[in-house]
Amino acid sequence: MNSPPAQHTKSRQTFSRNLLRSHMLIAAIGAFSLLIALITIFVQSRNVYLLSNHSIPVSRASSMVLRGVQHSLASMRGWVSLDDKEFISDWSQVWEYEITPAAINLGQIGTEMKLPGFKQRMTELSLLLAELQESQWWVLEIAQTPGNEPARVEYQFEAEPLLSSLDEIIRSLFTLNDEGVTLFSHDEEPNSLHDAGISFYTASDMLKRIVFQGEVELEDKYFYNLHMLKTAVSVLSRSFQKSDELETTIRYFKRDIAALKTVSTEIIALRKSYNWNVVRHRMETETVPLAKKVVKLMKRLDSDTDKLMTQRATLTARIGNFAAPGLSVLLVAMVCSAFIISRKRARALSRPATILAAAANQLAAGNFIEDISPVSDDELGDLTRSFNSMRRDLQDAQKQVVLQEKLAAIGQLSGSVAHDIRNPLNAISNSIYFLNLISNEETDPKIKEHLLLMGHEINRANGIINDLLDFSRENVPTFSKGDLNLLLQQVLAGGDFSDVITVDLQLESGLPVVEFDHLQLERVFTNLISNGAQAMPDGGTLKVHSARDGASIRITISDTGHGIAEENLDEIFEPLFTTKASGVGLGLSIVKDFVKKHYGRLTVASVVGSGTTFTVLLPMDQNAAKE
Amino acid sequence: MTIFNIKKLCSCILLMCLVLLTGKAVLAQGLKSDADSSETTPAHVYVELQRVEQLIDGLGLFMGVPEPELLGVSITNAAPHDVYFQARTLVIKANRLSFELIRKDSDPPVLPEGVVRPAEVKQMVLEALGVLSEVSRKFQMLGVHPQVELKEVTPSDVFMASMTANRHLNALLERRFSPAEVYRVVNLAIGYTSRLLAQYPGAPRIPKKPLYEKNKRPLDVYYRLNDCLLLIIQIYQASDVDILQMNVSGINEKNISPSDVFDMASLIVARLDFLHKSNGSRVPRETYFPGKKFPSDVYQQAGILEQQLTTLLSYVENKEQANR
User: Fold this and answer.
1) Domain span including residue B272
2) Of A458-462, B49-53, B194-198, which gets the smallest average pLDDT?
3) Is the ipTM of this complex over 0.85?
């Protein structure tokens, strides 16, 4: 019988899905390889990008800042030394177009690069550049101004008026003297005026040299001359002719000399101080150190960037070195693995088909091999199962054909042979009957025993002949009403059981009278009871029960004999099947046929070593059962 | 105990007593000084300023220099700090006059260390008074009239009085305050503002120099500096602090001299110094005599200051907004 192919469900694997999966697996291997190649390319391109877009611009911006700082210093020095305003303009442009944009650019690139500690350094740089620019600005402001040398300013605003005043006084005295005005009470005193003039002009010249030429070593000589001037004026003041005008002149003379001493002391102190040239001092102590700090910071930044870039370049080179062989190996591995996996998957996928093809060939050659176990739960699995089902059906059909042919041969043979055998058997039976009639007490017991044996064997032979005839004929039952319990009692009464067998008869009273073929059912019960008794050669209990079972009457005949092996249970009703040493194996086949013709059902249950139970269910209403 | 030890002990006790007495004296002096400081009011400063004015009037008469006309500006809400810088200018001018007339020179007064109190202003005015008194004595002029009425005045009144005294004193000078000196004070203001801007990372401290404009007069510089003062007022107002207000609407434009511009620049420096001390920023760079300068030079330099103050105002406003 063909079993229907398994239903396709969504959860079930299908051949196409398996095929798709197989292809997807190969594609996944390819994609994986491609992904590695892509990652390698991405890392490489990123490193190259960083090297080209970060390292170089950082170096460029960094060197631009450095160059700008040097440039600004040069411009500043140019202005300080040469007093050319072009340098100021140049300085301004350096900051506007070189340093500031480069620093901003550097900050932006550095932020993108995510250099460690870069932000802090940029803040430091920004601060330093601001300080440097401011410092330079102030240097530019101060340079080329009188204030750059405070001593000069003091000289200009404080010493010069005094020197001018003193010069005027001395000149006026000389003029008066030259004009013959009597200034002194002694003739020798004009020498003192002369001395005062020499001292003043010498001191005046020395002060100028100290302030403007930095000849600070003249300080002592200057003050000596100032002292000589003061002395000369003191001598003069004692020798002057007394007059109000001259007294006032001498008072102013002395006052201005005293003021000049005070002022020049301050001026010389300023000229000697470390800060005598403000710009130079500021450049040395502030501007240049700031520029150096910037340079140092930029160099540190450059060094860090270089280090990072070197690391990246090394990494890029390493990846580059690895990429070509690595990717080649990966390519080979991909091809190999694709081949291995494809082959394995192709084999797995084609195996059921190969097995099926081989089995089909075997089947075509008439070899009914065993079932093929389905190796997959897909369309090929379904095909395998269908093939198995088909193979079993074919095998059964073949068996049936053989059996039918055999039975047909038996039928033909038994029909003609039964008449030919039964006649001699009847003759033998009559002879035995006659011999028994004529035998008496004096007859040899051995003869009597053999006559009895002959009678039994003739009965058995008749039984076989009856079986053959029943099997070969179309036995149409002839129904008539009857009592099944009574029939069972009659069959049991006619039975020849050994003494070791106990019969347990339990018949339900009041069973309805039903219609049946007496001969056929007698044959059914006789065969079943006889089989039960034969199954207990060493004794046992033979149970015969009848009972109502719904619309049927159930008759069970069970023994406590050796039982039937499980593998034989399905075949005991097949014609010509027997496990007995004697017999042709038609009894149970006929029993089943007769029960079937009564629209009944015959079942068997057996446990090896415990016994067998046959159950016959017969409908009480034949007509209803027939419908 | 030996005699030596007794002598030693006595010496120690005497020394301790001496130390205690000295300490007490110093402490008493300090307390007195504090008491003086706390007792000084604008009225006391005003009295001293009036004495200064009397001396200047006397010197003016002696030298035959007429009193200049009034400037026509008014001040409100001035603080001792503002008056201090005017008084400091007074001292500088008095010193210069002293050198010119009697050849006596003194060091210029230093900038205040902290926030100025009236006592320090008074001290500065007294210094000017001392210098001018000495000059007057040299010319055998009458002494300062001791009787001056003490009346209720505000720091703004003191400011105006010191400004008037400054103008009058400037007129007596042979070497009057020139654009070069204004230039120097403007540079000082630039230095202060740079330090204030340095507190804001990334802020441009020294802007590009504005274009040089020819033919500028002191009046133009005065107005530009007034614009700077208005910016400073806005900077203070951004922090909810009211400061001095100056009304220049009635200004007598013909009478604006470099000395007046110098006073205005000093006022700006006073306000920046106050702001600078409140913020605790670094001391500004020292400035030096720039040589010959014209009003146009000062005008250009004041342009730098104006740009700086504009930048500072924007940073202060942003900071205040962020704080809110």
Assistant:
1) 177-324
2) A458-462
3) no
All structural domains of chain A, each given as residue ranges with its CATH number in brackets, are: 15-145+281-326 (1.20.120), 150-276 (1.20.1440), 368-473 (1.10.287.130), 478-626 (3.30.565.10)
User: Which chain B residue is nearest to residue A251, measuring alpha carbons?
Assistant: B102
Task: Note whether B48 and B165 are same-domain residues.
Answer: yes
pTM above 0.90, yes or no: no
| pLDDT tier for residue B1 given thresholds of 50, 70 and 90 | very low
Rounded distance between C-alpha atoms, residue A505 and residue B46, angstroms: 153
B115 and B55 share a domain? yes
Tell me: do B213 and B164 sit in the same domain.
no
Strands A514-516, A480-482: pairing is antiparallel
Chain B interface includes A83 (CB < 8 A): no
At residue B33 the predicted structure's pLDDT band, cuts being 50, 70 and 90, is very low
Residue A21 vs residue A288, higher pLDDT: A288
The domain total for chain B is: 2
Assess if residue B20 is contained within a domain.
no
- Asked if B194 and A141 come within 8 Å (Cβ–Cβ), the reply is no
Question: Within an 8 Å CB–CB cutoff, is residue A123 touching chain B?
Answer: yes
Instruction: Report the gap between the CA of B281 and the closest CA in chain A (Å).
Output: 14
SS3 sequence of A382-438: HHHHHHHHHHHHHHHHHHHHHHHHHHHHHHHHHHHHHHHHHHHHHHHHHHHHHHHHH
Q: Which of A131, A141, A258 sits opposite B187 (nearest CB)?
A: A141
CB-count burial class (<10 Å; 0-12, 13-18, 19+) for A281: middle
Domain boundary among B176, B195, B215: B176
B290:A262 CB<8 A: no
Pick the residue with more confidence: A581 or B186? B186
Please tell me the distance in Å from A148's CA to the nearest CA on chain B.
Answer: 7
- B87/B64 Cα distance (integer angstroms): 24
The more confidently predicted of residues A618 and A366 is A618
Task: Please determine, for residue A3, whether its predicted confidence score (pLDDT) is greater than 60.
Answer: no
Task: Check if B187 contacts A (Cβ < 8 Å).
Answer: yes
